[in-house]
Amino acid sequence: MNDTWDDLVRELAPLGEKVLARAPQDITPQARMELYRSLANGFALGAVRLTYDDPDYPCFYPHLNEVFNFAAPVPDFVYQTASVRGEGIYRLSGYRGTTRFVDVNFRSGPFRYGVPGNPAARIDLDDLTRDASGYFSVILSQKRPAGHRGNWAAMPADTTRLMVRHAACDWLHEVDARLAIERLDVPAAQPRMPAAAIAARMAKLAEWAEDQVSYWLGHVATIRQRGVINRVERHDYSTLGGAAGQVYFEGLYELAPGEALIVETDVPDTCRYWSVMVTDEHFGTIDWINHQSSINDVQARRDADGKFRAVVSPEDPGIANWLDTAGRTRGALQFRWNNSSSVPDLHVRKVNLAALAGELPADTARTTPAQRDRILRERREGAQLRRRW
Fold first, then answer.
1. Burial (Cβ within 10 Å: 0-12, 13-18, ≥19) of residue 253
2. What's the helix, strand, coil split of the chain in %, to 5?
3. Cα 86 to Cα 55, 101, 180, 232, 335, distances in angstroms
4. Which of 104, 167, 230, 328 is least enclosed, having the fewest CB within 10 Å?
């Protein structure tokens, strides 16, 4: 058993060079330090998940957020996760809140990116019976407990964890759900974790941290190899835990100084949720608390013809639907339609910023510096009011 601090640190030391080998060869010193920061954040996420998350005494922990920024987290989603055992009997309870939807996904296998899961095994909290205050309680187990007449959901035998998405578009006013989980078929008091078990969990920290960063570096490299640059194509995330009923479009942006992208699409007649966002070149969503790096269906301003148009650029073009890359000239662009009546194609074209006015309809909503300042301050407040931790 490797149970000394030196054993742990010895495993972590090579990680920097390992992930750097997956990065673009022309990575800048700035992007390299941001990559190392992501690696450190992967270690922090692993320290929480691996050393405290107990399937016999589960709690919901943060899964992805502005610090645990891997796999392009959606700014409108709060992600939580808890480990469980497929053979156990659990009670999920809490208050629904007022967010757009809350999706609970049963996941199987080890927590590794790229490991397929069961996209159909999930719960929508809106399908559960709740009391007048919004409180609900649901039993999760392979078989319905004898005599139980309340909410129950069949949990697949190979389930190893739950992943929850709380979706909100009006960050200032929607109220996130509050969730609790407990295993019912074990004693209430949690026993002390044996030293060997702690050591075994900590031995996985290096692999965990590397996986958080390296998998998505490979994902971006694959998109680049396919030539999906300054355009988007449909991408299937259903087997990797994508949200139920959600269609994704993604591609890379690569801009020279003075260039921008215009993203244009029709909007479905009905759609439970839609949004567009930009990431850095490591597939981490650009800081959405301090930058308008994402736009959802509430925040979006549509033109008189009904279309949605956004501008992707490193500098503020004075357009309301600006996707701020925070000075970056390359990264990923991702769009999602959730349970929509149609799936419109997205059209992406590169333009010169100096000629932007002539590339957009005359009625396209503009934004002054003072208005942008107010929008960003409201965005920052709304993001922090959500239950991210």
1. buried
2. 25, 30, 45
3. 10, 25, 18, 38, 33
4. 230
Mean pLDDT score of the chain: 93
Taking only the tens place, the pLDDT of each residue in 113-127 is 666 556 568 999 999
In this structure, is the dihedral angle defined by the CA atoms of residues 229, 232, 236 and 237, taken in order, positive or negative?
positive
Q: Check if 5-208 and 228-384 are the same fold.
A: yes
Q: How far is CA 268 from the centre of its chain?
A: 23
d(CA 100, CA 176): 9
Distance CA(275)–CA(273), nearest Å, equals 7
**Based on the number of CB atoms within 10 Å of its own CB, is 196 exposed (0-12), middle (13-18) or buried (19 or more)?**
exposed
Residue 12 has pLDDT above 90, yes or no: no
Q: Where are the domains of the chain?
A: 5-208, 228-384
Sole residue written with tokens 């998405």: 165
Its pTM stands at 0.93
Beta strand extents in 75-158 (DSSP E only) = 77-83, 90-95, 101-108, 122-124, 135-141, 151-154
Q: Domain 228-384: give its CATH code.
A: 2.60.120.1600
Cα separation, 134 vs 302, whole angstroms:
34
* Cβ atoms of 241 and 107 closer than 8 Å: yes
Residues in the chain: 389
* DSSP-derived 3-state class of residue 255: coil
Q: Say if CB 171 and CB 382 are below 8 A apart.
A: yes
| pLDDT tens track for 348-364 | 999 999 999 999 999 99
* Whether 232 contacts 302, CB under 8 Å: no
What angle do the packed helices 29-52 and 205-225 form, to 10 degrees?
Answer: 130
Do residues 363 and 304 touch, judged by C-beta distance below 8 A? yes
For residue 58, how many other CB atoms are within 10 A of its CB? Answer: 22
Topology (CATH) of 5-208: Jelly Rolls (2.60.120)
309 burial via Cβ count (<10 Å: 0-12, 13-18, 19+) = buried
